Amino acid sequence: MTLTKLELARQIAARYAEIPLVRAVAVSGSTASQAAEPGSDIDMYVYVERAIPLDQRMIAAQPYNPDAEFDLQLFETTDNYVNAETGYPLDVLFRWVSWTEGEMARIFDEPVGWLGYTTSVWYNIKIALPLFDRDGWFAGIQAKAKQPYPEALRRAIIEKNTLVARRTMFSYMQQIEKAVKRGDLVSVNHRIAALLASYFDILFALNRQPNPGEKRLISFAETLCPLRPEQMRTDIEAVLRLGGTGDPATTAAAQHLLDQLNPLLTAEGFTAV
After folding, report:
1. Tens-place pLDDT, residues 28-75
2. pLDDT, tens only, 119-176
3. Are residues 179 and 60 in the same domain?
């Protein structure tokens, strides 16, 4: 009988648990939320005190397909492979315990806003399903992640992202307008992506919800954000369709998208974007 993705994750987590440097193992993403589709990866997070020797990680991953990619250093240290017995793809990220603790401190103890995705790690930890927890460390981190949304963080995120979206001299909106005028499609789409990252950071913060990350953001916003523009999906899709064409209407569509946030922002006591 074929294992489920969660069953396979538990088996592999038990192997990582045999490595003394591993403090905890968890799955997050669609596997943890039970929203996985047939082609979804298993997003596994291995929390370590320091780097694990590559040969130990390769042993824990067996059996894997010949195209496995070990020790990728792109965003975080990652091993990507397909389990040879089930065909399930795994995305295994190795996170240092000290870095994770610093991220939680940035959220709850000394709130700092970023330009997009400020609270994505928080969301990732909050929804994670623990598979191994050597001494209760992950339980403590997850308990912290389930605290109420800090108001100071909410204000920091909204202030920073509304500023860069349209309230400063070289805002994303100003850059989009200039890129459209010069017919620079790469720049138009680059700045639209940045604008949308800030848009969602504002929206999730406004609703006191951690940002789910990069996937299914419109659907997440429709589910998690009662405070949202009525035509949010339509307005976002209009900007995306126009942005790939260079149509001068792109600028007006992006302006309209931001305009629809203003009644929500001012009702909550924030400066309009």
Report:
1. 986 776 655 667 899 999 999 999 999 999 999 999 999 999 999 988
2. 999 999 999 999 999 999 999 999 999 999 999 999 999 999 999 999 999 999 999 9
3. no
Give the torsion sign (CA, 218, 222, 226, 229): positive
Where residue 135 sits, what CATH number does that domain have?
3.30.460.10
Q: What's the rounded Cα separation, in Å, for the pair 234 and 245? A: 17
59 with 160, same domain: the answer is: no
SS (H, E, C) 60-81: HHCCECCCCEEEEECCCEEEEE
Q: Euclidean distance between the first and final Cα of the chain, in Å?
A: 55
* DSSP-based three-state secondary structure for 132: strand
**Residue 141 confidence (pLDDT):** 97
At which residue do the structure tokens 């997440």 appear? 220
Q: Do the bridges between strand 69-73 and strand 42-48 make them parallel or antiparallel, or are there none, so unpaired?
A: unpaired
The single-letter DSSP state of residue 90 is: E
Whole-angstrom distance, CA of residue 273 vs CA of residue 123: 25
